[in-house]
Every structure is written in structure tokens, then in C-alpha cells.
Amino acid sequence: MAEPFLIGENMTGGYGKADILHDCTVAVEKGRIAVIVGPNGAGKSTAMKAVFGMLPLRAGTVRLNGEDITALSPQDRVARGMAFVPQNQNIFTSLTVEENLEMGAFLRRDDIRPTIEEVYNLFPILREKRRQPAGELSGGQRQQVAVGRALMTRPSLLMLDEPTAGVSPIVMDELFDRIIEVARSGISILMVEQNARQALEIADRGYVLVQGSNAYTDTGKALLADPEVRRTFLGG
Amino acid sequence: MEFLNAAVVLANFVLIPATAYGAQLALGALGVTLIYGILRFSNFAHGDTMAFGTMVTILVTWWLQSLGIGLGPLPTALLALPVGIAATAAMLLVTDRVVFRFYRKQKAVPVTLVIVSIGVMFILNGLVRFIIGPDDQRFADGARFIVNVRDFEAWSGLQEGLAIRTTQGITLVTAVITVALLFWFLNHTRTGKSMRAFSDNEDLALLSGINPERVVTITWIIVAALATIAGVLYGLDKSFKPFTYFQLLLPIFAAAIVGGLGNPLGAIAGGFVIAYSEVAVTYAFKKVLGYLLPDRLEPDGLVQLLSTDYKFAVSFAILVIVLLFRPTGLFRGKSV
């Protein structure tokens, strides 16, 4: 099998002395959706941070498009086409929606108008609210701003840390639809999700992490069909 | 007629001086609030930064005067102001490089930075006194009044006169221009927006590729301009004395906190709240009331709530009240 577009391979590391990740591997193909699920404290967000360079690794490598980026800082990874939407505080609340998007494109020196238009086409509500401070928006709309801000660098890989945390089920479905749309435009997506069942339904690849290690890895559909995974992680 | 006389007295002794003072405090508070928003600490060296900038401006003013260069009716200090700003910016950038950056790299907690800024304050304090001396310096020249008492009386036929000093007019005009430029910069330029973004959410600003050291450098330069302008305007309007500038720290901090630390609009509002309160509470209203009340009710005393010696108590009282009832300030800054 050819090398995936992005792979964090055999990652081991943690914040202090104790490791959180143990030989953990996650990968995503070009234009596909990979989802990391697992119980609380399984190291899902930590795996995400490791891939983005926010966690020191003791072992393992991260490769983007075949290139070893393990030693790069998060900022350098942004310049290489990775975009990250943190779980919390992922927007500039005192800036308007449009200013949030402009700040997302801070590193770009070319005309960003077309990209802002693309984001508004993807999330039409943001066009209406573009002059409003982002902090005044609803939870779902804030998440749209956050994803929109990340898309402004025109990334080849979009990483989402629990994009549907704290939004209603209807808004969640809507967000997942948009995420599929983003993937269809050729952007690879790696995301961590609490809503495991719904997330695996749209996932091309699913990773079930337990205590910082890969427990099950398969296509989203296969994981949903696996009785063992259903019983232990999806509540039957 | 009585009412008009009362209004003129009030304008002459309360409204006009307090407006000029408010504008000076607002400029000072803007500097404090910018540092709080972006570097995330309360800079106790701000009063002495103002003194430093004013000192350089005064020295250059004297030099220009000795060469016979002036601005006619306007004070020569306005010509020297850019030099003062440049010198202050250089001084602040050097201070940041040798002092503050060390603690920033260590991710020191804000209270450590506050203490560090007190150290910087003492050093600047000594430096300014060493160079220009601890005494009062007057450096205003040019025309003294825009409107003087005699002309006003002749024109209006009122018993009371109204004076507007040139320095008061210059203070207002300069403050309006400075604030307009600052807000235009913060709201409409890429760099200004990146400063607001950095102040709002540092981590996300880093993720967006905003360079923190560049933001910090630009902040210091803007703060140097604001502090020097505020200091020079205050010095022109009153006089320059290093100790007075150190004391200005209290009303300036009160203004920034009343408005909401980290919020530029709040700093301006706060400056005027503090200035009007301070002047109104320490002004003797006897004359105003004398015009307004019937003769028999005319007060015997001065009708002065507090002696001017206690003017700092006013800032302090307002500060305490705001912190008790609305800790984030009138305009919702960051909570302290």
C-alpha cells in the first residue's frame, strides 16, 4: 500500500515523565476522513496534538506527503499546509467574523477575497454575520467560524478536535455534512469525536484508541459493524 | 444673565480644565491598557515612561529655542515631540530586550512582571532625575491664550470671564488626532488586527502564524508615542516635575481599570470619568451657587467637598467602587 498523505507512526510521548501515547499510529489518505474515537482519557486529543507538533515525542515520526515533519513547530506545520481547529477557544471572540477569517490567512500575501467567498459559500450564515463579533454567535456558528478560519490558509490537511462538542444534534448533522463537503474538495480530514457513532458513519478510516494505544483500526463502516467495538465503545 | 454667569464660571474652572486633564489621562490610560491587553501585565513604569519622553522633548525644545527655531503661536515642544517619541520607543525596546523578554520567555506569571515593571520604574525614575533634575520645569512658549478673559468679557458683556489656554486647545486637538489614528490602526490595518487577535487569544494567534515578537515590538512603539504625547501635553498644560508624573500613575490606572483593562474605548471613557470627578469634587462651588441661588441662600462656606490635596483620594475611591461592583470595568475589559 502506498504511503498515506499524513501519518503519525508509532508515536510515543507525553507532557511530563509519564507517556500518554504508546506506540500509537494514525493516518489519513488524500481527500479522506479519518476519525479518532475512544473512551474519555484515551489520549485522543493528545494524539491529535502530537500530530500537530504540540506534544514532544520520545519515539515515532510524523510524515506529511512523504516528508518527515516530526521536528517542525506547529507554526511551521501551518506553513506546510496543516490547519488545526482546537476544541476550546478556537475563535477570536472580540473580532468580527470577517476579521477572524482574515487572521486565519495572516501568513498569506496573495488576494484572500476568493477564499473568504469560498468559506461564505460553505457556511452561508457567516456571510450574514460577517460584521458581528464572533463571540456573539451561537455555539454551532462559532464552530463554523473556527473551521472557516482554519480553511483560510487553504490547507491540504484539516485537523478538528471535537468539532461538535456542545452543539445540538441537528447542528451536528449539519456540521458533519459540511465536513464531508470539505473532504470532497480534496482536503484530508483528521478529527477527534465524542459522538463516535455519527462520526464513524462519515469516516473512511476509524481509529479506536484505548489508554494511548491503537485498540481497533478499520474503515468506519467495519468498526460500526464489529460486535466487539459496538459492545465496548458504542453502547451496544 | 445670572445663569449665564454661573455657566461661564463652571466652564472656566471645571469643564475646560477637566476636559484637557481627561484627554491627558485618556492617552496615558490607553498606553496602560494596550500593554495589559497584549503583554498581559500592569506596567507600573508607565508614569516614568511619560516622564522620560517628556524630558527628552523638553531637552530638544530647549535646544531648538536656543537655535531660535519655533512654531510661532504654537509651543516649540510640538516640533520636538517626534524626537521624544523616537527616543522613548528606543528606550522601551531596549528595556523589553534586556528585561521583559527574559521573563516573557520563562512565561512568568503577571504578578512577577508587575514587580519587574516596578524595578524598571525606579530605574527610569532615577535616570530622569539624574538628567534633568527633580525640579519643576516650564517649557511652554508661544501664545498663552486662544480666548482670554478680557476679550471674552468685552465680547459677551458678562461679569465673568472665560479663558481657553493654547495648551488646553492643543491637548484636545492632539488627543483627538492621536486616538483617531490609533483606532484606525487597530481596526483597519493587518498589523492592528493582528494585535487585537493576539490580545484576544494568544494561542490561536500563534496557530494563525502571527509573530508574537513583532506584535510586542509594535505595541511598545505605540505605547512610547502615547506616553510621550500624554506626558508632553500634561507638562505643557501644567508643568513638568518627575515626581508629579510618578503620581499620575494612580489616576491613569484608575482610568484604565474603570474603563475596563485591555479595552481602548474604556480607557478613554475612564480618563474623562476620573478627570471630571477629580476636578468637580475638589472645586469650590461658592461662586457658581452664588449666581444660581437667591441672595439669602448664598452659601457662606466654599462649598468644596474635598481640599485639592486630597485629589488622589478621588481616583482611589472610584477605583475601589468599580472594583467592588463591576470588576471588569464599565466597558467589560478582562477581569483583573
Task: Output the keywords.
A: 236 residues; Rossmann fold; globular; B: mainly alpha; two-stranded antiparallel ribbon; 14 helices; 2 strands
Helicity range of chain A:
25-40%
Under CATH at level 1, the class of the domain at 1-72 and 191-236 in chain A stands as: Alpha Beta
Separation of termini of chain A? 33 Å
- Determine the structural class of chain A based on helices, strands and strand pairing: alpha/beta
Radius of gyration of chain B, Cα only, in angstroms?
Answer: 21 Å
Strand content of chain B: under 5%
Query: What about the largest sheet of chain A?
Result: 6 strands, mixed
| Order of strands across the main sheet of chain B | 1-2
- What name does CATH use for the topology of chain B? ABC transporter involved in vitamin B12 uptake, BtuC
Termini separation of chain B (Å)? 49 Å
CATH topology-level name of the domain at 1-72 and 191-236 in chain A: Rossmann fold
Estimate the global geometry of chain A from the Cα principal axes.
Answer: globular
Q: Which series of helices and strands of chain A comes N to C? A: EEEHEEHEHHHHEHEHEEHH
CATH superfamily heading of the domain at 1-72 and 191-236 in chain A: P-loop containing nucleotide triphosphate hydrolases
Oligomer: heterodimer
Report helical residue fraction of chain B: over 70%
Write the topology of this structure.
The complex is a heterodimer of chains A (236) and B (336).
Chain A: E1 6-13, E2 21-28, E3 33-37, H1 44-52, E4 57-64, E5 67-68, H2 74-79, E6 82-85, H3 97-104, H4 113-122, H5 124-128, H6 139-151, E7 157-161, H7 169-184, E8 188-192, H8 196-202, E9 205-210, E10 213-218, H9 220-225, H10 227-233
Parallel strand pairs in A: 3-8, 3-9, 6-7, 7-8
Antiparallel strand pairs in A: 1-2, 1-4, 4-5, 9-10
Helix pairs in contact in A: 3-6
Chain B: H1 2-39, H2 46-66, H3 77-105, H4 110-132, E1 145-147, H5 149-156, E2 164-165, H6 166-188, H7 190-200, H8 202-207, H9 212-237, H10 242-247, H11 249-259, H12 264-282, H13 286-292, H14 311-325
Antiparallel strand pairs in B: 1-2
